[in-house]
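Example record for the data management plan.
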Amino acid sequence: MSRALTPKGEATKARIVAGAARLLRDRNVADTTLDDIRAETGTSKSQLFHYFPDGKDELLLAVARHEADQVIDDQQPRLGDLSTWAAWDEWRDIVVRRYRDLGDNCPLGSLFLQVGRSGTGARSVVDGLLRRWEGYLADGMRALQAGGRLDPAFDVPTAARALLTGLQGGVTIMLSTGSADHLEAAIDWSIARMRESALGGDALSRGTSDRRTAGSPR
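Corresponding structural encoding:
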């Protein structure tokens, strides 16, 4: 059982994790040493092992959790309330803007391409992130159904999974090419498919379905 930390200790530990996360967004995990992390965070060896007695593996697991939380936090508060079409459009814009602004300094890219591959614990964190994220998207679709805005027969589990897959793939392509076009197209296409199943027949005349971004449905 880990011992409880004082508020100051918690703040110091969080600072170390955040600094390690920044470093690992630009570095190969295998080539990054604890000395590199100490230099980045201004931490002594004794201090580092005080907070992470199991060394690099324990720190990498903490970084994975930090990055997973950051991915979700970057989409809030809109991700937590996707009960209207306007909310979906706002969420879409938040996601595209955030990942375009972050560029290579992207917690999602770090988690999937670097830290998340560092061990079974970190891979479990990635799996947990995907489940949480998919759950938020599915909850939003069900909220549309509950509000009479989406056909009750709409396949929410499959749609949420497909949207998340397209989004993650779009971010990966963006990290390789510097262009957010595929990310925008993936999100816009999924929301347009949802609007096609909207109740009332007029949802396609508004919002995402009318976007003119590269790759967006017209």
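Summary line stored alongside the record: The mean pLDDT is 86.
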